[in-house]
Amino acid sequence: MIAIWSTVLNLAPSVASATLDALFLLVTTVFLSSFLAVWLTVADIAAPKALRLFIRLYSWLAQTTPPLILLFLAFYGSTAFGWFISPMTAAVIAFVLFATAYYFEIFRASYNGVPQDQFEAAYALGIPPLSFAIKVIIPQVVRIAAAPFIGRTTVLFKETSLASAISVSEIMSTTSAFIYSGENPLLMVAVAGAIYAIINTFLITIEKRCTRRMAIA
Question: I need a surface site. Which of 106, 171, 173, 201 has the fewest CB within 10 A?
Answer without folding.
Answer: 201
